[in-house]
Amino acid sequence: TQGSIKVEEPPDAVYRTYLGGGGLASYFLLREQPPGIDPFAPEAMLIFMTSVIGSGQLSGTNRFSVVAKSPLTEGYGEAEAGGYWGPELKAAGYDGIIITGQATKPVYLAVTHEQVELRDASALWGQEALEVQEAIRADLDDKRVRILQTGIAGENRVRFAAVVNELKHFNGRSGLGAVMGAKNLKAIACRGGGPRLRPADKELNKQTFDWFRKSYDKEQDPMHQYGSARGVPALSADGILPTDNFRAGASDQADAISGQTMADTILTNRGTCYSCTIACKREVTVPELGVVPAYGGPEYESIAANGSLLRIFDLKQVALANQMLGRFVLDSISTGVVIGFAMECWEKGLLTKEDTGGLELTWGNHEAAQKLIELIARREGIGDLLADGVKRAAEKIGRGAEQFALHVKGQELPMHEPRGKKSLALAYATSPTGADHMEAPHDPFFTAFHANGIMMPELGITEASQPKELDTRKVKHFWQAQRVWSLYNTIGMCDFTAAPINVITMTRLVEHVRAVTGWDVSLYDLMRAGERADAMSRVFNVREGFTPRDDTLPPRLFEPLDGPLAGERVDPAELERALADYYALAGWDAETGMPTRGRLMALDLEWAEHSPNIASAA
User: Over the stretch 88-138, which tens digit does the pLDDT of each residue have?
Assistant: First the structure.
């Protein structure tokens, strides 16, 4: 608001306790933002946070978190991304950025090792992502500056607008791009120049790096060869590929939108993130449709949400939709689910041509779906209704539209089927951000198929459980693994490089944290850090008015699935029992959902129970 900038240096104890990412960002958000703030209010905080090991040379340690109160759920909002922006911020000498207030006109923040300044971005407002990136690089006369930005969707406060760096690395979920837009902050440009991360123990760091180089063979890794869409055919064969707005789980056309088909047809390059060997990113070209590699290429979530979910099985058209999402900077998951919701409302007669401006929202109509993307981003016509997400749109349409609105706490479902992978029922119901598939490894990793026969031996998970089970064993496995996934988001570790998906084990990760920081940390310390992040986000939601009644699923998931798993569903009574067991393990009060005093004490979070923000909310 005043254009002021200051540098803050937290004590070492804060870094050691919260580490970075979602953990350190939650610490600031919970301590400093009063409850009940509108996500778009000037006083709302918007936090960008790397970690204590961020920007090292080990593959997968390049990620950073964006955190704020979500305009989509009005609860805790967090999203992670890789790419190059986080390491560049570290090289400029900073671990994170906290934004408050609202600029009187559009600005962008330029961060270098020598200077931090706000610069006029009035000419960039209303421009698409590629044009914005080129203009900022020209303004700074530096082609190597790394640019993170919100888009036209964020400017228009679309509640699921995303944040993107380098046009293709998205902090997609929670609508954080809309918070950025509400602050009139168009972009943050970073250029290093300072020293790169210097590990405290160079020899141990080298040992870990050499071990990874010898242990990982990208030529044998399907993630490198085919990207995150490698599993589309298998998901369809298993009956868990979201189709027809989650009414079905399979299609005989699934192969047409797979990572294998992409590699054989439109793939131009295997893109990557900073210092990552795995290179799972896709870059595609479709000349006849104007699809260019600058915007990358569709990953699994984009392919399913804007492909099979809508019964669109033309990979080139899915790639075009993906590029449109990049141009306007929209969350691909929420956008696809919103369009699927609109198509089912059209099918049921709840939306007509009069409502849609003449668009026929029939299944498989890629032209209508692509038009909706632009209407949503610009909040024009029917797009203005859909830009608020399926929960609010369904409430406005009424007449039973709520049955077609696939969301938890207001955030649209990701492209993974809880009726065939039952731990996802817990993941979606308990996630602080609403439906989120990145809460823990998915159910196949709880089986004994993994190479070592055990999902995560360091955690003592030695009994297999099956995908369609939601018993006490599955709850225990999920709770253990969820803390690991939260740890990854706290230290900026990519799930695709670490266990159980890839080769970096928990033991090796502990060694790497020791090598970089010089701290004598243990696996116990790191697991507590993951759980600490979970507890803080839960406290935030409780003070914002969420209760255990919000830990539920949309009605459709209680209905029988169609396809190879025909008849399979999430049983409400079974979910209720599983939630009770989960609350007991996590140390959450069954009536309020708040972590108990004892659990907060065990996590060194007594301040969260007694802080003025919590007390005033109560």
Answer: 999 999 999 999 999 999 999 999 999 999 999 999 999 999 999 999 999
Tokens 């970096």 identify what position?
Answer: 504
3-state secondary structure of 190: strand
**C-alpha pair distances (Å), 572 with each of 182, 270, 455:** 39, 42, 28
Q: Is the pLDDT of residue 13 over 90?
A: yes
- Is residue 170 within 8 Å of 162, Cβ to Cβ? yes
Predicted pLDDT at 618:
41
**Are 81 and 39 a contacting pair, CB within 8 Å?**
no
What gap in Å lies between CA 448 and CA 146, rounded to an integer?
42
Q: Which residues contact 117 (CB under 8 A, 6 or more apart)?
A: 5, 109, 110
Q: Which two tokens stand for residue 91?
A: 């090289």
Predicted confidence band at 448 (pLDDT cuts at 50, 70, 90)? low
> Which residues 6+ apart lie within 8 Å of 8 measured at CB?
none
> What does the pLDDT average to over 177-201?
93
Task: Put residue 409 in one of left, alpha, beta given phi > 0 → left and psi -120 to 50 → alpha.
Answer: left
What is the token pair recorded at 64?
């950073």
Residue 556: count other Cβ atoms within 10 Å of its Cβ. Answer: 19
CA distance linking residue 322 with residue 366, whole number of Å: 12
Which of 283, 295, 286, 282 shows the shortest CA–CA distance to 329? Answer: 295
Q: What integer pLDDT is reported at residue 193 of this predicted model?
A: 84
Say which amino acid occupies 540. F
Q: At what angle do helices 523-543 and 21-32 cross, to 10 degrees?
A: 40
H/E stretch holding 164 reads strand 163-165
In this predicted model, what pLDDT tens digit does every residue of 394-404 receive, in sequence order?
999 999 999 99
Q: What's the rounded Cα separation, in Å, for the pair 382 and 147? A: 32
Helix (H) or strand (E) holding 119: strand 116-120
Integer Cα distance of 98 and 89 in angstroms: 13
pLDDT at 460: 80
Q: Provide the H-helix boundaries in 348-403.
A: 353-356, 366-378, 382-386, 389-397
